[in-house]
Amino acid sequence: MSDTHPGTYMTTALALPSTTRAVADHRRRAWCWLGTGITAVVVGLAVGPGADEAGIGRLRALAVFCVGCGPVAGAVGVAALVNSRRIGLAVATHAWMACSAVAIPPSQGPPRVVLRHPAEGTLIALSVRTVAPRYHLANPEPRGVLWWAEDPRTGGVIAPPGGKYLVRVLPTRSDQVRRRDAEAAVRHGLLDRPTPLQPQLPVLEPSADQAQHLDLSYAALAEAARHFSRPGTDGRLEHKGPDVRTVPWWRVRVLLEISQVRPAAVNAVFAAVMMLLLWWLWARDRPVNPEPQFQRGRRGHRPPLYP
What is the pTM assigned to this prediction? Predict the structure, then answer.
């Protein structure tokens, strides 16, 4: 019989499935922002000149809106891609470490946290680098614990217990601010908190006899994956899918989900609908055709050609 171990320490943070999914989702959102920005600029540049020559006010307003907002969305996408790459490198290189933590409410700017190293007992002051809607992810309460993928040079990544939501952090730059944050954390009792349990993964190791008779063929692995899959809403397992060796990749449901093609298409359609709605709300009161530059005055008089 095989020996069953209750748990083992993770070699890297990516060994946790929830962290792997979080990295993929972060990268997918970044590409969606970048794709939306590029699409908006291309549409604006393609439609704008023709609409201006034809005097179609609403279409010209849409082109101006796309050209104005497209670079902003593209810049957000580029920054998110850079941030996603750094997060991926941190979790692929370092393991999760559960640390007692205290949040430091900032007077302005992003929040800061102070972690206590579970082995050394030292205090680490970190500054959060993320957008405002994600600031709450750096709050360790109510358990007072944050997971940290340690990177001494760049700060690494923190996450609430479970590793599902990733937030990039940097070492707090100012010595004065670091010292003040550490003193505030000590006043909040950070040094008196017990060391939290470290993240572990359940691992099953087959015996030597079983390892010699393992069937690692594609058919055997696919069948094992099907048995380990979750049952559907009717309580039945998924039907056996097509063989990836004989059909295009987009016909294999698992590969299609990994590629994130469908969510990206849905996000692109949603972004296009929102842009059209904003354009309609902004340009509906504008005149369709511009007023003529020259009008006849009183009978027998014409406006001068030059002012």
Answer: 0.60
Taking the CB of residue 222, how many other CB atoms lie within 10 A of it? 15
pLDDT tens per residue across span 198-228:
887 655 455 555 545 566 666 666 665 555 4
Question: Which class for 25: exposed (0-12), middle (13-18), buried (19 or more C-beta within 10 A)?
Answer: middle
Q: How far is the C-alpha of 195 from the C-alpha of 109, rounded, in Å?
A: 30
Q: What angle do CA 260, 245, 223 make, to 5 degrees?
A: 85
Give just the sign of the alpha carbon dihedral 240, 243, 244, 248: negative
SS3 152: coil
Strands 167-171 and 155-159: antiparallel
The predicted-structure confidence for 220-263, as pLDDT tens digits, reads as follows 666 655 554 544 444 454 555 666 667 776 777 766 776 777 77
Model pLDDT for residues 104-143, shown as the tens digit of each residue: 877 777 889 999 998 888 899 999 988 888 888 888 888 8
Tell me the CA distances in angstroms from 216 to 55, 207, 213, one per residue in order.
67, 16, 9
* Cβ neighbours of residue 200 closer than 8 Å, sequence gap 6 or more: 6, 7, 8, 9, 10
Structural contact between residues 129 and 170, judged by C-beta atoms closer than 8 angstroms:
yes
Reading the block at residue 78, the tokens are 């580029």
Output the six-digit token pair for 155.
Answer: 């700060």
Q: Which helix (H) or strand (E) holds 42?
A: helix 17-54
Residue 235 region by backbone torsions, left for phi larger than 0, else alpha for psi between -120 and 50, else beta = left
Q: How many Å apart are CA 31 and CA 74, to the nearest integer? A: 9
Task: Select from 257, 258, 254 the least CA-distant residue to 240.
Answer: 254
For 275, the token pair is 């842009």
Strands (E), 105-139: 112-116, 123-129
- Dihedral of CA 207/213/238/24: which sign? positive
